[in-house]
Every structure is written in structure tokens, then in C-alpha cells.
Design a protein that fits this description.
The protein has about 300 residues and is α+β, with helices and mostly antiparallel strands. The chain is built from ten helices and 15 strands. It has helices at about 30-35, 40-55, 75-95, 160-165, 180-195, 205-220, 235-240, 255-265, 295-305, 305-310; strands spanning about 5, 10-15, 25-30, 60-70, 100-105, 110, 115, 120-130, 145-150, 200, 220-225, 245-250, 270-275, 280-285, 290-295. The strands form three sheets. It has a seven-stranded mixed beta sheet. A six-stranded mixed beta sheet has the order 1-2-3-8-4-5. It has a two-stranded antiparallel ribbon with strand order 6-7. A hairpin with a 5-residue loop joins β14 (about 280-285) and β15 (about 290-295).
């Protein structure tokens, strides 16, 4: 029988063959704020995130679907957004060599004359050779080394930080680098198939800070994170630069992961260590300051969102 092996914060994995363990990984993504700032890049960023999510599980991305959501096409601004998003998605799929197998378009998503942000939702499907070897997204074993893959830049426009803290939407979204996405996916899938990773989580909304919290909360396992000396601590924690992931590996596999990343031109940095069950998430900053957050406090903030919204 088929088995769904869900990873809510990343791609979902479904076994399609019980004997061989063959499966598929599926992810859908979109950031409407990025698409509002630049609909061409926004569609490509949606594709890149879904592609990255699938690769983080160990799935080889193979096909694309979409649900493109916009306001009224009778509005020239909206029609321009639509044209830009479709062109951006087509160009990116051509560059990555990944076909669109189907999709749909939804127009007239607005109240009066106020249209929604352009929201080109992109789904990516990939193949997992053996779902038993899929890479989970959570911290697991004490002593596992935490690595950051990819380049972090000062990219905060359209980010969760700008939205939540400042209610601001402006500037340009993060740079699209599809070749870097392809290289990262090659490393993630290769490391998965070689059994080198104990966890992997792509970086997107909220950056490193959000990903670390999600990885800790999944199984209630904390970690100590060291801000790299060559990065501004705030940028390190909250930048939403693309083509990045956090992975963990046992101490005896770290050098193999580093070598694989370097072979494919993917920047790699050691940024911490998994501590243990019920431990805090601790971030050591370059100036000697330490930020420590209790898992219980983080879980309360995470789980209170919907009840606070709906009463």
C-alpha cells in the first residue's frame, strides 16, 4: 500500500511502491510579497523554493505544476503581473530543464478594485529512490553538526521580518540564481543517496532563525548556533537569500558533506551543533552575546497563532 510520510514544513513524501520503496516528494510554494515586488522574479522564486524543498528530502525534482492567482485581467497592471509571472516561470523551467505538466489560472481575486498580491503558486514533484532513506527535516541526535549550505546576502526586502516587524513592502526580492539552486539540489540529493545527512531544511521565509526553530520544535531537540564571524548576525539570522539549506550530519560524515558541497561549488559553513532533547535553542553572536530561547516558549508562540487569530 501507499504510505504518506508528511513533513509539514517542507515537501511531503509518498511511497508508490512497497517492494522497492520508490516514492515521490511534492511541494507547493509561493511568496506573494516577492511577486508583488517583481512578478517575473516572484514566480521564479516560487519555483526555486518548491524545487529546493523537494531536493531537501532527497527527491530529484522532475516536474512542475501551478496555480496562478491574480486580480482582474481587465486591469492593465494585473495583466502585466500575469504576463511577467508566466514568462518568468517559463524561462526558469527552461533553464532548469524541468517541464510544466499542468496547472490552472484564477483571475478576479479581489475585493472591489483591490486585487490580491499576484500569487503564482508553483508545485514541484520529484522522485525518491527509497523513501526509507528520505532525509527528515528535524534535529535528532545530540552531537550532530549543523551546516549552512549556500551564500547568505543582505536580502531583507519582502521578508517575514520586514512584514511582521515593520509592516513594510518595498525594494527588490532576493536574487534568483537558478544555477545555484541546481548545484544545491545536486548536493542535497547526492548526500541523501549516500546516507550522509541526518536532517535537511531549506531556507526561505524567516531565514535561518525560522528554519532552526522549526527543526528544533519538530522533535523537541535543541541546538547551539554560532553566528559566522564574516556575516552580520542580523543578516545571518533573518536574510531570505535563496539557494540555501541547513543540514545536519554526524561528526564522521561532516567532511564528506563539505567535500561534496565544494565539488559542486556550493558554499558551506559549520554553524553549530545539536545539543539534546528539551534543550534551548541558543545563538552565540560574534560579539560574545548569547541569545537563548526555551523550546516551551517557542512552541507556545508557534501554536498560539491560529487560536489568537480566530479566538
Amino acid at each position: 500500500g501507499n504510505t504518506v510520510l508528511a513533513q509539514p514544513e517542507d515537501a511531503g513524501v509518498v511511497r508508490v511502491d512497497e517492494e522497492s520503496g520508490l516514492g515521490v516528494a511534492i511541494s507547493t510554494d509561493c511568496n506573494g510579497r516577492f511577486a508583488k515586488l517583481d512578478p517575473y522574479a516572484g514566480a521564479q522564486l516560487a519555483l526555486a523554493e518548491a524545487y529546493r524543498n523537494v531536493a531537501a528530502t532527497g527527491g530529484d525534482p522532475l516536474a512542475v505544476t501551478n496555480c496562478l492567482n491574480f486580480g482582474s485581467p481587465e486591469d492593465p497592471d494585473v495583466m502585466w503581473q500575469f504576463e511577467q509571472a508566466v514568462t518568468g516561470l517559463a524561462d526558469a523551467c527552461l533553464q532548469l530543464g524541468i517541464p510544466v505538466t499542468g496547472g490552472n489560472v484564477s483571475f478576479y481575486n479581489q475585493t472591489g478594485t483591490a486585487a490580491i498580491h499576484p500569487t503564482p503558486v508553483v508545485g514541484v514533484l520529484g522522485v525518491v529512490d527509497d523513501v526509507a532513506k528520505r532525509v527528515p527535516m528535524a534535529f535528532h541526535e545530540m552531537g550532530d553538526v549543523v551546516l549552512l549550505l549556500g551564500e547568505t546576502r543582505d536580502e531583507l526586502a519582502g521578508s517575514e521580518w520586514a512584514h511582521v516587524v515593520h509592516g513594510h513592502l518595498g525594494g527588490l526580492p532576493p536574487k534568483v540564481d537558478l544555477e545555484a539552486e541546481r548545484s544545491l539540489a545536486t548536493v542535497l540529493v547526492g548526500a541523501s543517496r549516500a546516507g550522509l545527512l541526518t536532517a535537511a531544511h531549506d531556507l526561505s521565509d524567516g531565514g535561518v532563525a525560522q528554519a532552526v526553530v522549526e527543526m528544533a520544535l519538530r522533535h523537541g531537540v535543541g541546538a547551539t548556533i554560532d553566528a559566522p564571524a564574516d556575516l552580520d548576525p542580523f543578516v545571518f539570522l533573518f536574510s531570505e537569500s535563496t539557494a540555501r539549506a541547513i543540514v545536519t550530519a554526524t561528526a564522521d560524515h561532516v567532511e564528506k558533506v563539505v567535500a561534496l558541497a565544494r565539488e559542486h561549488g556550493v558554499p558551506v559553513q559549520r554553524i553549530g551543533v545539536v545539543t539534546g532533547p528539551a534543550d534551548d535553542v541558543q545563538v552565540d553572536l560574534v560579539d560574545g552575546a548569547t541569545v537563548s530561547l526555551e523550546l516551551q516558549e517557542l512552541r507556545a508562540a508557534s501554536e498560539a497563532t491560529l487560536p489568537a487569530l480566530f479566538g
